[in-house]
Design brief:
The complex is a heterodimer. By secondary structure, chain A is α+β, with helices and mostly antiparallel strands. Chain A has twelve helices and ten strands. In chain A, strands 1-4-5-8 form a four-stranded mixed β-sheet. A four-stranded antiparallel β-sheet of chain A has the order 2-3-7-6, with no helix packed on it. Chain B folds into three domains: 125 residues, Butyryl-Coa Dehydrogenase, subunit A, domain 1 (Orthogonal Bundle), CATH 1.10.540.10; 99 residues, Butyryl-CoA Dehydrogenase, subunit A, domain 2 (Beta Barrel), CATH 2.40.110.10; 159 residues, Butyryl-CoA Dehydrogenase, subunit A, domain 3. Chain B has a four-stranded mixed β-sheet. In chain B, strands 2-3-7-6 form a four-stranded antiparallel β-sheet, with no helix packed on it. Chain B starts with 12 loop residues before the first helix and ends with a helix. The relative contact order of chain B is 0.10. The interface between A and B is large, with 42 and 45 residues. The complex binds flavin-adenine dinucleotide (FAD) (2 copies). One flavin-adenine dinucleotide sits at the interface of chains A and B.
Chain lengths: 383, 389
């Protein structure tokens, strides 16, 4: 068994890079939508076979056991090559959660099935009336004998139609003093009777998120993670790493490259008006990369990320959106054409980028909420 | 209101316009607003021909056309009311594209083809399209590579490729710009003519935009709409008018999106209060409102200038100012509307997407904000030089 962490950072980077470059399907690079299970399954199983599906899990659970520093390199290389996200909630959320808070039985049952690609997880937090105010969620789980009985509705659940399991926040104590205190964390098999999944098409026409309805769904009591009514603090602890991954500069760097190609093909790259706008974005991306590197150093040292990491998510997602806006503008008369547009030597999906940039400032905590966090917890402004 | 009786009535102009506005609103409400566009967006030709006939009955296809052809001879201001009202419902019928732009060129050129074709346009039985841009996407009416060639027997044929032709698949014929030995010419080519082929591309809205190939299409002098200065003037003026009307449609749609969004801010509750009570959102809504008002003001100026001064550089400046402002404002308002709605704003089921897609189409059409700012700069520079001289 390779001790990855003992390797020199640069050697490790080269190994990972080579593997992605050799094994990742070319036609799936830099997709402008979340890939469905049927499309990405092959790659998922390639990773599983290589033992690289769960880079951040400890070795004893079948992971690569990467240190935070090495894990970041892994993620950076993945993004550099435009490797798509697999339905990775099992690896990024459920695995680390169970390793920390799960029972031995839960670990023994779920972890290997995630690694074999047998269980695909989705995240059931948001509800129609609990978005930014997640703690007001209402889906209830009531104990009846050895089981919880779940009633209610989740929504915006990404790729629920491909998932075999859903991890969810449910209200187990409607009488709690604070709304955060009556919430528990449950693991649910999507095949349970009483679950209905309805895919919802997004603006780009892709069915990437779903509504999930629960009608007297019975779940064994041992499917709770942590203590009853302690689900909120468990869920919150899982959020901070998400903010740094959502703050990665790679999507913007890639889009900037496409924009440059588009401008070159249209003969406006040397135009001073365009060049000024383009250069401003180039600097935005370069500074994002530097800011990202500083937070990555914190992770590398094994320290906890502070609330200031929210600035990465804001700047990364809004920079990407501005790049996609300029792509539409630079495409001129072709700026409203759907699908890949032929710009001579290059085929560029202008609207694909434009649509793909829209939801990132919404998910993972809206950018307004991220700004509230910085205002309150970084600048210390009164509420 | 049936507009065919309008110019005979004695009510004053403001009342007339109010009545027209009401009648457009009534049509939109009766026909289900944006839901009609949703139902039609993936069908061919992307709009409803029975609605087109209804527009003809209402007189909406006749508004700006001269009385000599059976038109109502009303002003651009009346047409803008229709464009704005239909824009607010993302109505997919190509009123601006077919009537104001394509039929507009014929009307400004005059002559026997205008006499033959325009009554059919007004009756709703013939839908023309203007094929003027080429694949470079240039907006300069004289950047034309399509040619009229003369063979050894003196026969004429049209040869070239025209791009970005809206609703080409639904069009009965094309007004085509080309050059011959003497300069710019405009020809009328029926869609069924030998040598005419179409390929389509889907726009953001789902509507189709055509690339029309004219492969040595035989034409005769009877197909000639206009030549040289007359051709340039007719083409130029119709493009300016259609640009103003596209701006009007953008104003209509941005107003509707702003209304939808402000309403949502009032009713969506998070953290125990309407999200519209959060100042972060209030200020952004106000910024959008300011953009809408600026768009309205710029549009009104453009209508006035173009109506008064036609093909002048001051009119062109006003048109560019309006199109630049309306294009940017519409896109900004739609993007911000999505963000301020949260996830529901990103769904296809909610109407915002229909508006966003239409904003993309009309802001790119006939020159986006970048193009029109550049054009404005050239007029401004010309004027400055004039002052200096
Ligand atoms: C593509 C996509 C995928 C998603 N995937 C999942 C998933 O897999 N699982 C899951 O559980 N959820 C998922 N979500 C849901 C996501 O977490 C929510 O959309 C998000 O939390 C915002 O909630 P909301 O959509 O209800 O918007 P709301 O909370 O209703 O917000 C509407 C607007 O009000 C603003 N606002 C709200 N409160 C404040 C405040 N206090 N101050 C200032 N502004 C405020 C918001 O920023 C936003 O602009 C996904 C969303 C998207 C778009
Ligand atoms: C050059 C000058 C000339 C002036 N002339 C006159 C005059 O002729 N007559 C007159 O009556 N006053 C005048 N003023 C005073 C002016 O009206 C005040 O400065 C203004 O009302 C702000 O009040 P403040 O200075 O106490 O700042 P504060 O009210 O303390 O505001 C400080 C900052 O907080 C922001 N802020 C305050 N409240 C809110 C809120 N509810 N939501 C969001 N942001 C908020 C402000 O915009 C500002 O950026 C003048 C000021 C200047 C600078």
């Amino acid at each position: 068994m390779t001790d990855w962490n003992a390797m020199d950072d640069e050697d490790f980077r080269q190994d990972v890079r080579r593997f992605f470059e050799q094994k990742y399907p070319e036609q799936l690079r830099y997709p402008l939508q979340r890939l469905r299970w049927a499309e990405i399954k092959g790659w998922y199983l390639t990773l599983a076979e290589k033992g690289w599906l769960a880079p951040n899990w400890p070795v004893e659970y079948g992971g690569m056991g990467l240190s935070p520093a090495k894990f970041l390199i892994f993620l950076e290389e993945q993004e550099r090559w435009g490797v798509a996200r697999t339905p990775d909630m099992g690896m990024t959320m459920v695995g680390p959660l169970l390793i920390k808070h799960g029972t031995d039985e839960q670990k023994a049952y779920y972890l290997p099935r995630i690694l074999r690609g047998e269980h695909i997880w989705c995240q059931g937090y948001s509800e129609p009336n609990a978005g930014s105010d997640l703690a007001s969620l209402k889906t209830s789980a009531i104990i009846d004998g050895d089981e919880f009985v779940i009633n209610g509705q989740k929504t915006w659940t990404t790729l629920a139609q491909d998932a075999t399991h859903i991890f969810m926040l449910v209200r187990t104590d409607p009488q709690s003093r604070k709304k955060q205190e009556g919430i528990s964390f449950l693991l649910v098999d999507c095949a349970s009777p009483g679950i209905t999944v309805r895919p919802i098409a997004n603006i780009a026409g892709h069915e990437e998120f779903c509504e999930v309805f629960f009608d007297n769904v019975r779940v064994p009591k041992e499917n709770i993670v942590g203590e009853i009514n302690q689900g909120w603090s468990i869920a919150k602890a899982m959020l901070s790493f998400e903010r740094i991954t959502l703050g990665s500069p790679k999507q913007s760097q890639y889009a900037l490259g496409r924009l440059e190609l588009l401008a070159h093909q249209r003969g406006i790259l040397e135009d001073p008006v365009f060049l000024d706008k383009f250069t401003a974005l180039q600097l935005d991306v370069a500074d994002l990369a530097s800011a990202y590197a500083r937070f990555a150093d914190v992770v590398r040292r094994g320290e906890a990320l502070g609330p200031d990491v929210s600035l990465l998510k804001i700047w990364a997602t809004e920079t990407y959106a501005r790049i996609s806006n300029l792509m539409v503008e630079a495409a001129g008369a072709a700026g409203a054409m759907g699908g890949k547009i032929d710009f001579g030597a290059a085929q560029i999906d202008v609207l694909g980028n434009f649509y793909y940039a829209r939801p990132a400032p919404i998910y993972g905590g809206t950018n307004e909420i991220q700004r509230n966090i910085i205002a309150k917890n970084v600048l210390g402004l009164p509420s | 209101m049936n507009m065919n009786t309008m110019n005979e009535s004695h009510v004053d102009r403001d009342d007339e316009r109010r009545l027209l506005k009401d009648s457009v609103r009534a049509f939109v409400e009766r026909t289900g607003g944006a839901s009609r566009a949703r139902a039609l967006r993936r069908c061919s030709p992307g709009f409803d021909r029975s609605v087109w006939r209804e527009f003809a009955d209402l007189g909406w296809l006749a508004v700006t056309l001269p009385e000599a052809y059976g038109g109502l001879n009303l002003s651009l201001a009346e047409m803008a009311i229709i464009a704005e009202g239909l824009g607010g419902a993302v109505a997919p019928e190509p009123v601006i594209e077919a009537v104001s732009l394509a039929a507009g060129v014929l009307s400004h050129a005059g002559g026997p083809l205008a006499e033959a074709i325009l009554p059919q346009v007004i009756a709703g039985t013939l839908i023309p399209a203007l094929a003027w841009q080429e694949s470079t996407g240039s907006y300069s009416p004289d950047a034309v590579a399509t040619k009229v060639q003369t063979d050894s027997q003196g026969g004429l044929s049209l040869h070239g490729v025209k791009a970005f032709v809206p609703y080409a698949e639904a069009s009965d014929g094309f007004v085509v710009s080309a050059t011959d030995a003497c300069g710019l010419v405009l020809f009328w080519v029926p869609a069924s003519a030998a040598g005419v082929t179409l390929t389509h591309h889907r726009l953001a809205t789902g509507a189709s935009v055509g690339r029309v190939t004219f492969d040595h299409v035989p034409v005769t002098e009877d197909n000639r709409v206009a030549s040289a200065d007359t051709a340039a003037r007719a083409l130029g003026l119709a493009i300016e008018e259609a640009t103003v009307l596209a701006s009007a449609a953008l104003v209509g749609l941005m107003s509707r999106v702003l209304d939808i969004t402000v309403e949502y801010l009032k009713v969506r509750v998070q953290f125990g209060r309407p999200i519209g009570s959060f100042q972060a959102l209030q200020h952004r809504a106000v910024d959008l409102y300011i953009q809408r008002e600026l768009s309205n003001a710029a549009l009104a100026d453009a209508i006035k200038e173009l109506s008064a001064n036609g093909n002048s550089s001051s009119a062109h400046g006003a048109v560019s100012r309006a199109k630049a402002r309306c294009s940017d404002a519409a896109l900004l308002i739609c993007r911000e509307a999505v963000q301020m709605h949260g996830a529901i704003g990103f769904t296809d089921e909610y109407d915002l997407g229909l508006y966003l897609n239409r904003a993309l189409v009309y802001s790119a059409w006939l020159g986006n904000s970048d193009h029109h700012r550049r054009r404005y700069a050239t007029y401004w520079k010309d004027r400055a030089q004039g002052v200096a001289a």
